[in-house]
Amino acid sequence: xxxxxxxxxxxxxxxxxxxxxxxxxxxxxxxxxxxxxxxxxxxxxxxxxxxxxxxxxxxxxxxxxxxxxxxxxxxxxxxxxxxxxxxxxx
Length: 90
What we know:
By secondary structure, the protein is of the alpha/beta class. The protein has 3 helices and 6 strands; from the N terminus they run βαββββααβ.
């Protein structure tokens, strides 16, 4: 789909600390509803522009996503960008 990434069932749990390492325009991960997504290939397609996504790079973007897109099926929309699932806090 986006940038050749293919969505696969989560293969591993990813900590929020690991997500925090991916916070640049060239390597942008976020968490939405417990799933970790690589937004990098999607940014050019985002209807609101890439700049708004900077606010959720490297962190949990669920609140922001739900504020603006509560009706969007994120699992379908970003299936090709799925990296894994967020690990439960230790």
